[in-house]
Give the backbone structure.
Amino acid sequence: MLYHAYLNAAPADYAIICSNSGVETDVVKKEIARLRLTGNMDISVVISDLTYDELSVDNTKKTTPHIEDKDVVDRGIEEYRKVFTEIPVFGMQDVENGNLFDDIMGKLS
């Protein structure tokens, strides 16, 4: 419900979907489709180097992310880029280097 409240509160021109290499691309495709229903906005995907697994769940109330192996993250970014050819896909290094910022500013100006 909070998701819909934010999207209905004000029109968005740009959306960033944050994911990790362990999330299936079909899940992200569904979220992109939901965002597209709210209006015509630019969308990008950022692949985080943090992930969760059965070892990172301490108990039912707390999960602790851990840093994924760089090779796994790089393969995930490569896979996402193959699937999402019309949407820019960034890794955390791209975010730190300003590539995501440049993309946002280029599309909004």
The chain has a mean pLDDT of 85. The beta strands are 14-20, 42-48, 50-51, 57-59, 62-63, 66-67, 89-91. The chain has one domain: 2-103.
